[in-house]
Amino acid sequence: xxxxxKIDVSSFSPMAATEGSLASRVLMxxxxxxxxxxxxxxxxxxxxxxxxAVQERALHEFDGFVDLLRANGVDVVVVEDTLEPYTPDxxxxxxxxxxxxxxxxxxxPMCAPNRRAERKDAPLQAIKKxxxxxxxxxxxxxxxxxxxxxxxxxxxxxxxxxxxxxxxVCRSPRSSEDVLDQFCLELDYTYFYFNALxxxxxxxxxxxxxxxxxxxxxxxxxxxIGDAQHREEFLEIARKCGKEVxxxxxxxxxxxxxxxxxxxxxxxxxxxxxxxxxKVALDGEQLAALQKHCKLVAPKIDAIETNGGGSARCxxxxxxx
Length: 321
Description:
Helices cover 26% and strands 19% of the residues. It is built from 10 helices and 15 strands. The strands form 5 sheets. It has a 3-stranded mixed sheet, with helices on both faces. Strand 6 (158-161) and strand 7 form a beta hairpin. The protein is globular and about 50 Å long.
């Protein structure tokens, strides 16, 4: 059966501008047992085993990150993690759920069994409370795919252009096209599914480490898109959507320079959140290009990046309710 929602690049045309493509509120999960996750290390080349008091360092970095976001006018909802069940990666909630301005809460199938346990009562209740008063209209539960060995890890697997309703997804064991097609059918998206490899010629585990989609720009590691046709199709979509392309190198990608999230603060200003590691990796021309579009916010989260194999974008789950 052909996939119903795969984008036809040749006939694609961008949608009219819509409200609600940038979130002004994020949910973050404060860690209690953050650690190197053995279950995710096999296919996450960004993960490195750190030493010392990892939980204490991660907690300090997390609190500093939240303070920095709030100082820049971003509304942050903090949920305290629980000791049990053990969830070493709970600090990355964007992988197991998304919310949408049209009123959906989507729950995603996770590859690692201990990451499935992150769907705890406390964050779920916090999300539903935020969606009260009819703002949350329905739940789309895709977790049944876990039993079939098919996964799609939220906005780790998918980089969403919410204005044009396109999901960009690079192939990996964590990003099944079957689940992706169902997500797009449920949410009225199309998707662009492509090959992306890191510097060691391995599949990139999550799309959000090699690209970030802004409202008027896209940060992308074009060198990771080895298939020339996929690369040209990607650039054609960006051109049609009027996005400025900020290209980063493979080395910069490995410093998390693709792992960013554009938000809107309470004053209506656009902010682009990345880690200090990512910001330092960018050159002056790239920084200037991004600063034309957004104010840059860059927390220092070295211990979280090293042990978790994820960065600033992964720590923020957008709330559109």
